[in-house]
């Protein structure tokens, strides 16, 4: 069975003090939940403090982004070697990075390679816009993004994929569980063409996009969805804990 994974992407929210308080509020409850990989993704300024809180913890830590160079004259950027040893995961290719900062499939691919070289586990995001979906281009978009992000990446690489339809992110308009599952089937078929069916079946694929404690069960009950990349709802301790609890009940590995 694929180990389900719930990751909370805090985006550009929480001060250092607020981040520490949020982790403390939910840490004990999350620690008691087994059979699910639990990941929190605070802003860069809070990574070190949260990492100290999570020492010897079953809760994993992720950065929200990184640059692909190890060092250099890249003002404002964070390198993979700066994150190595501080966190375990890094989110790459999020639609907000693609949309607001013009990140291409080629750039995402460079970041994936750099993250893996540094020992980080990428959470690679793919997803179509509303315009692309209405034009019937969902399969083409997610296939192209998946292939582009994984170009030259070994089958053995420890990568999580997050399907995040752009039209559902931060809008309150989540995809249906059935529709999300159908698109994730396409992503898994793409992985099978790249690496073979065994690797494709072993790869974890999350759903993201207006996921809440109220609707997460709809996604978790789908056969191909292995968890969620949660946005705004992960800023509420009780709601995030509830989502992890529901994941353990529905999909938890025992």
Describe this structure in a few short sentences.
The chain is α/β, with parallel strands linked by helices.
Written description of the protein model:
The chain has eleven helices and eight strands. Strand 2, helix 2 and strand 3 (59-63) form a beta-alpha-beta unit. The chain has a single domain (5-251), classed as Alpha-Beta Barrel (TIM Barrel). The protein has helices at 16-31, 47-53, 80-83, 95-101, 105-117, 130-134, 138-150, 177-195, 197-202, 216-220, 237-251, and strands at residues 5-9, 37-41, 59-63, 89-92, 121-126, 160-163, 205-208, 227-230. The chain has an eight-stranded parallel barrel with strand order 1-2-3-4-5-6-7-8, surrounded by six helices.
Mind sketching the topology for me?
Blueprint: E1 5-9, H1 16-31, E2 37-41, H2 47-53, E3 59-63, H3 80-83, E4 89-92, H4 95-101, H5 105-117, E5 121-126, H6 130-134, H7 138-150, E6 160-163, H8 177-195, H9 197-202, E7 205-208, H10 216-220, E8 227-230, H11 237-251
Parallel strand pairs: 1-2, 1-8, 2-3, 3-4, 4-5, 5-6, 6-7, 7-8
Total count of strands: 8
- What radius of gyration results from the CA coordinates? 17 Å
What's the pLDDT, averaged over the residues? Answer: 96
Spatial order of the strands forming the largest sheet: 1-2-3-4-5-6-7-8
- Class derived from helix and strand content: alpha/beta
CATH superfamily: Aldolase class I
The parts where pLDDT drops under 50 for at least 5 residues are: none
CATH architecture: Alpha-Beta Barrel
* Name of the level-1 CATH class: Alpha Beta
Within the CATH hierarchy, at the fold level, what is the topology?
A: TIM Barrel
Order of helices and strands: EHEHEHEHHEHHEHHEHEH
Helicity, in percent? 40-55%
Q: Characterize the main sheet.
A: 8 strands, parallel, barrel
Inertia-based shape:
globular
Tally of separate helices: 11
Distance between the termini: 9 Å
